[in-house]
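Hi support team,

I'm opening this ticket because the web form for multi-chain structure prediction keeps timing out on my end. I have pasted the exact lines I submitted so you can reproduce it. The total is 1740 residues across six entries, so I didn't expect it to be a heavy job. Is there a limit I'm missing, or should I split the entries? Thanks in advance, R.K.
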Amino acid sequence: MQNRLSNAAQFLAMEASYEDADVVVFGAPFDGTTSYRPGTRFAAQQMRCESDGIETYSPLLDLDLEDYSICDAGDVALSNGNTPKILSEIEEVAAGIINDHKKPLMIGGEHLVTLPVIEALVKKHPNIHILHFDAHTDLRETYNNEKLSHATVIRRCWDILGDGRIYQFGIRSGMKQEFDFALKDHHTYMEPFTVHSVKDIVAQLSGKKVYITIDLDILDPSIFPGTGTPEPGGITYRELETVFKAIKAADIELVGADMVELSPHYDTANVSTIVACKVLRELALLVASK
Amino acid sequence: MQNRLSNAAQFLAMEASYEDADVVVFGAPFDGTTSYRPGTRFAAQQMRCESDGIETYSPLLDLDLEDYSICDAGDVALSNGNTPKILSEIEEVAAGIINDHKKPLMIGGEHLVTLPVIEALVKKHPNIHILHFDAHTDLRETYNNEKLSHATVIRRCWDILGDGRIYQFGIRSGMKQEFDFALKDHHTYMEPFTVHSVKDIVAQLSGKKVYITIDLDILDPSIFPGTGTPEPGGITYRELETVFKAIKAADIELVGADMVELSPHYDTANVSTIVACKVLRELALLVASK
Amino acid sequence: MQNRLSNAAQFLAMEASYEDADVVVFGAPFDGTTSYRPGTRFAAQQMRCESDGIETYSPLLDLDLEDYSICDAGDVALSNGNTPKILSEIEEVAAGIINDHKKPLMIGGEHLVTLPVIEALVKKHPNIHILHFDAHTDLRETYNNEKLSHATVIRRCWDILGDGRIYQFGIRSGMKQEFDFALKDHHTYMEPFTVHSVKDIVAQLSGKKVYITIDLDILDPSIFPGTGTPEPGGITYRELETVFKAIKAADIELVGADMVELSPHYDTANVSTIVACKVLRELALLVASK
Amino acid sequence: MQNRLSNAAQFLAMEASYEDADVVVFGAPFDGTTSYRPGTRFAAQQMRCESDGIETYSPLLDLDLEDYSICDAGDVALSNGNTPKILSEIEEVAAGIINDHKKPLMIGGEHLVTLPVIEALVKKHPNIHILHFDAHTDLRETYNNEKLSHATVIRRCWDILGDGRIYQFGIRSGMKQEFDFALKDHHTYMEPFTVHSVKDIVAQLSGKKVYITIDLDILDPSIFPGTGTPEPGGITYRELETVFKAIKAADIELVGADMVELSPHYDTANVSTIVACKVLRELALLVASK
Amino acid sequence: MQNRLSNAAQFLAMEASYEDADVVVFGAPFDGTTSYRPGTRFAAQQMRCESDGIETYSPLLDLDLEDYSICDAGDVALSNGNTPKILSEIEEVAAGIINDHKKPLMIGGEHLVTLPVIEALVKKHPNIHILHFDAHTDLRETYNNEKLSHATVIRRCWDILGDGRIYQFGIRSGMKQEFDFALKDHHTYMEPFTVHSVKDIVAQLSGKKVYITIDLDILDPSIFPGTGTPEPGGITYRELETVFKAIKAADIELVGADMVELSPHYDTANVSTIVACKVLRELALLVASK
Amino acid sequence: MQNRLSNAAQFLAMEASYEDADVVVFGAPFDGTTSYRPGTRFAAQQMRCESDGIETYSPLLDLDLEDYSICDAGDVALSNGNTPKILSEIEEVAAGIINDHKKPLMIGGEHLVTLPVIEALVKKHPNIHILHFDAHTDLRETYNNEKLSHATVIRRCWDILGDGRIYQFGIRSGMKQEFDFALKDHHTYMEPFTVHSVKDIVAQLSGKKVYITIDLDILDPSIFPGTGTPEPGGITYRELETVFKAIKAADIELVGADMVELSPHYDTANVSTIVACKVLRELALLVASK
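Hello R.K., no limit was hit. The queue was backed up. Here is the completed structure from your submission:
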């Protein structure tokens, strides 16, 4: 093909080959258990289209995407309408990446897609800790009689990992029983509403292997309207930046990460997608550098 | 409660009690197999909110909703994420209405919701014919290896009814094999692109029991953008009016009807919802009067 | 001020001084009796902003705005919330224009603003006929117990003019009694749904003084979504063009005109406003040339 | 009717019967004096549609809607276009609720609807104090020569209550004379821009009967774009949460409340409506529990 | 990379390699001379994202994309802000495709991008004829004193080709002089407003080499709002289908084609992009098969 | 013309004649080098339409537009597509204002329009200092090989003014080299991310002549989505208010100002335009009073 023609459809500066890459970014376009506004299936694709709107250099972290080998490998091809089968397809992809000694960085989809990545990771890293950023508890035992749901995903992770391994921040919505699960019974650590304690928590996790899952609806709906279940009273982008700086400064090993719940068709002013792109850049720099 | 306060949430002039009603309108808020843009789950609710924008009298049909006993019974409560179970829940509701000697008029949801209503109807009326208005063939044997899908629903109806019972109009998208199924092998009758032959077909069906299913994407996307899979080149609203007049003039018995695939969150100018409301008024008048 | 700076806020090529003008365009930003979606108060202002998107030359009429003396005189300053007072303010403006031997061309606002212009005109031209283009009958005796309403405006004009003076086209929504008022009792002439008979009617009106009122919701909502009460099944823009050509060819005297019910905040794709601008250009050319 | 069908159109968990209810929620769909962008008439209806997006439990207040008897009684049926008559209709509804020994919680509509509720309340509770949250002073003696206007409503309340009874917070727009009325002449208490002093004020009001009126445009337009007169520089949702916590902690008796000025058709990303739903939940919990 | 991951960013079924392809599709993301609403630079990228919404089979033409070797080669990398240089970059790409014995099919960008493709084509095919579909004449000698402009592009083509080689259809906006250029002086053939004569014209061109340029604003704004200069009164999609059928039936050789002026950020309901995708499918099938 | 008709198209209360004015506001509708989302050409026009939504009195500054002589002189008429010529046209207008002993206050347009105003100003005031508020560094030597670009504009100003004259605030995006230009090599003063040091800087500038340029994308995209390159993590409107208060309190002479990069067609909820209007009011009050 001619030099002047280019058909790259990868996220900004994530153009390493799969073989050369240390971090593999992939999309998991699944929104099948979404109870309110669906559409997160379109997130990764839209982010690739919009990623030219940001720069490769992060002044916050003083790191640059161009200094790392990151491959945006595209979206997982998923079956249609069979939740358990879809989760196994995502787990297969995550396991492949991990077995190739690379780190997975997933773009959801709804939050349930975190579960198969955790299942793949614990086979290699049984002692991982999870930093969970979200507006919602996601701790229900079942939701509409279903065990596999965006509203139960962290409870399912707890089924695997048990007490003392999950740290929740920014939570501001859920049933009273879910808050009690964390705040009274201490099955997880939870800081409701805010993210002030991240710095202390990552200090406690010094030397540990850590996975980060960010439900972008932790951000206030003013900053991130393009999501299925917007919940007023969220954190600002600057508060999220304090999280990134705390993680950069911490002595932890990041074994992977994900960001979920961008629903671009509700992003009428197109700024949620740009927020998601910037979060992905910062996450990728953290995963690649730690 | 005080006289001046009212909390009606029923479609315009469809306020008969269930017991008194001859026609029962209900919503089936399911969009679980949608492959492109989801959101038809919100259709019935949004139509109720907007129905005040039209009148009860149809100058086209010279009939008035206020002269009939129609009950808008609300939405079916559905399980989450288990397609076969959801279909059985819809069938149960439809069967109840039919057994109470009333006619069902359903608002989708995606097109797959037509299947359980047909299943309920054939138990009472084994010889029904279906008039199918749509942009898409919906005749695939499977879609993504699934037999139950919005893209297979008319094929599933054919499984039940067999040759010579399904009449398709306005079809302008599908695989070549699907067009061959109809146009070469004549398993169904099909008029591609247009609806000119409706008048002749309903004359042929004189004295028969007939069910109408309208996938609103038969309308051109200019008229009906608020749908999951808009397909350019559709019919105009006035062409749809010729269908309504032909049915009114025909000597057929309408045993029920549905209209599907309004996805209101893509209806940015809010006119698709008004189109759907007007179609529901005309359909209700036809079902009630014939 | 410097030559390079310009602060014109007039509609395209309607920059004659009031004194020099033969036709005076003005806005009547009133939407106080709107029952469904308000906002026509913003129509004239938005049209001025968007009018650069069209040309001054009409290939349909083979006439050019630059060949006529037309003044866009701005919006009428209106009181707030007192309907009778507001109508008298509009009548005062219209009467001033008429007394200055100029023709009024008004941009609504809701349809009720037509009434004061008719009241001003009949003082000078007691024998005018009205060509009324609309989706709605507007013939109610009262609406919500009010005699002055967008839904009663043509009935109020009939109170003034009596039988045989009002010709209604494109009507497709109303109460049965309103259709009977026209079609059974012949108080007005009415062609429901379409505009085919305009050519014959204007031939009958040969030599007469005629006023044109266009409720833009006569157009199908696909063409004109930006209006308070969109009604499916309307005419196309090309059908409206046949009206303009018939009027151009007719031997009538146009004493004024109006176009109403653009509600620009519902015009999400910004095409209703362009349609309104083009209609205003054609109307202005007709009023100026006949 | 069948069990599986439901047609509830009430706000989330506000399903007590009117007779059993301690708090009666109702809508007042009036926007007749709105000077800029109209449309608040649609607020209560849209909030009912969207209220499923939030939970019944408030982690902020540690209270749950399911523990209280609240009735969403629907919207007041209003006359069309006659402001004094409409206000008397709202007052009649409010008076009925108060006489039935229930507390009114109103959803506007424009801010003028607060006036008839205050008029009804002072007949039973002549000594009420008003906590007023708003971007705008609303203290004009007249607006466009009208005494009854959204821009004069608090001045009208002051006409009834006099000095020392009205506390205004978050005010950031108005005429200099209005600010002087409060800040120089001390007819009302005013904290411009912010809400820091709410805690102190409610401490001063210990033992008193208090009414809360929240004009939602007190929130920054980034958080609440869906309103008629957005005013930059508003408070954040978290700052509003400090207000709710202060009120919960205070020793006051809440005799009623309202929230006004949601205009859902300007809420393109649909987050203003969710903000309004969450505010209504918190307000309802406060009114019910205090 | 793993089998399950795919990062194709090519238009539906246009996945041949450049070497194997008979038709090469490419984007020309330039909108630098746009006078009204810019944004066509985003068209090709957005169409690739949305092309999954249509099928590969065209029932209109009874042809299937999967039966042809078509390569979507991506967008031309363009300099910024220097119009002549940008045009030479596009010409270089087109010339490369032509010299490789493949046919170019370009997605604009504004209409000016047609010029460099014509310049490249005439070097190989000096006798080409152009079928030009558009709302606008595009025949000005200069626009704002510039010779290179979206409003002059067909005049520039005429500079190259001379009289009797350009056929214009659907034109409904321009200056009187431009219409005279075609209709009085016959420098081009022009059918204003409609496309009825395409069948006759292509019959006259039997045996000739033909290039097709479609400015998508030939379609009515109801069908295609997402464009820079929407012009009411355009053709319907079905009328465009008669063009495609006439071309398929004609005995002409298609040497290339383009479609221009999709501006996706104005496509609020996302249907203009689907229209553009379907037009590209039909155009590609015509270019590949003729 | 009649008294009741008015066609003012000037920004709120900026109705002084050019001759009487001390401050001249004008628009520079140029967006020709915009690399991402264009459309700032529409900013000034849209702001005039929306300015009625705010008041003339600023409670923040305790100043009122009605107390100053400000002329909104309209938009500069610009050539099309020739960047150097366009810049000279803007410079000519700015020089005229300055030579008439008035202060220029410009509404962009993209940021490049600042350059010709600076070029005009330095001829009269060679020692000006620039306060630059922005999300982006704008310090590139070239962008896409172009020296004149929105991404190089502050570097071009530095070419004129040299070290120690430019103060940058709120910067959060750019290449590492650009940050080094400021933070390591100190060619400009830069406070990244925030605006805390404005108070100290203006104290240092006591007695100096100062020009203010505000790229409105310094505000967080939640507050200001309607811009070409939204960048998450920006300042709040209240933080911008601290800037205005610091400038009011400082002992500096304002010789002019501009605000750029409002792109109203991306302002779906219409709040960015209101933010821009309020910023213009505060800027105008500062320029007029200092």
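A quick check on our side: Chain B has eight helices and eleven strands. Let us know if the file doesn't open in your viewer.
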